[in-house]
Amino acid sequence: xxxxxxxxxxxxxxxxxxxxxxxxxxxxxxxxxxxxxxxxxxxxxxxxxxxxxxxxxxxxxxxxxxxxxxxxxxxxxxxxxxxxxxxxxxxxxxxxxxxxxxxxxxxxxxxxxxxxxxxxxxxxxxxxxxxxxxxxxxxxxxxxxxxxxxxxxxxxxxxxxxxxxxxxxxxxxxxxxxxxxxxxxxxxxxxxxxxxxxxxxxxxxxxxxxxxxxxxxxxxxxxxxxxxxxxxxxxxxxxxxxxxxxxxxxxxxxxxxxxxxxxxxxxxxxxxxxxxxxxxxxxxxxxxxxxxxxxxxxxxxxxxxxxxxxxxxxxxxxxxxxxxxxxxxxxxxxxxxxxxxxxxxxxxxxxxxxxxxxxxxxxxxxxxxxxxxxxxxxxxxxxxxxxxxxxxx
Length: 393
Hints:
By secondary structure, the protein is of the alpha/beta class. It folds into two domains: 10-181 and 368-386, Rossmann fold (3-Layer(aba) Sandwich); 193-365, Glycogen Phosphorylase B (Rossmann fold, 3-Layer(aba) Sandwich). Helix content is 44%, strand content 16%. It contains 15 helices and 13 strands. The protein has helices at residues 23-34, 74-87, 97-109, 125-130, 134-148, 159-167, 193-199, 221-234, 250-259, 276-281, 296-303, 316-319, 334-345, 348-365, 368-392, and strands at 10-16, 40-46, 62-65, 91-95, 116-121, 153-156, 175-177, 207-212, 238-243, 266-268, 284-287, 308-311, 326-329. Strands 3-2-1-4-5-6-7 form a seven-stranded parallel β-sheet, sandwiched between helices. The protein has a six-stranded parallel β-sheet with strand order 10-9-8-11-12-13, with helices on both faces. The protein is globular. It starts with 9 loop residues before the first strand and ends with a helix.
């Protein structure tokens, strides 16, 4: 990646659907807030509503919500073009396919516009294929192939995701993986696990297995409940904690929890604007997701010194050093998850060692500052290249 002079200030408009709670949305807020210290001015443009995470944006970061209704809206294309142009953006940073469509259409509408598109993919394309008909998947691949041509750069949130895109025949001359980062000051180990558990209403002597994030089918929280049912028979002090919410999967998860013979040992908190106290109460983070890009939740748990037990989804092996800072394996059924969890439940020494190494790994490889420098370098390189072309013209 080409380094440009720090004096090359850049204006970047982050184009998203909304800032409702989610891993990608959380990452956009972190990026917008952090880039201020790197000479990058940021504005967030939401195609829909602003969302609950908008409250976390720095006061200097502008946000515009276009309140788009369902379906493709030509008037929203015009709004995006106007908002981005009037603000004087150098780069429109689109996130996933929907914003990419609107970003490219807005650029085509604004003839002679100087701004460039940097596009980000945040999840495995395999996930899209798992829940849609084949023709729909092929249509989305075709859309990306055509739209990528209008991008100055395409990035993913893990190096493994670059290979995932390429496996679907999606390529770009500037396609890079920029791993997510975590704020290791905000997310830090707790001074007392027992006290942290009491603060959120759990017994101080309990062993807490946690799961944080939106409740979608591919996140497989129900599989975790099934594994917990077997564990709870053997370990009387084990508890399960879900932190998160979703209109898609909450009801089915609640129903499954209510059917559990150990439902009194399962807690669902809903969305929490500050998840740190809940991480502090956890002894383990369990992530059975079938598909990911690079999980912010895993990085946050690692920064809090929590061992992570996860299915070998995209990006997991990049974050978690297997049998050093956590466990990564093929989790196809509840018994697989139970087996991995028991490896640590039965070994307090390994649990402590894994937690210490998880924290060190988060600090050394996934610190927020590293991610911010990578994005800053990319944005400056794109702006610099565009400026060179303009001067030559």
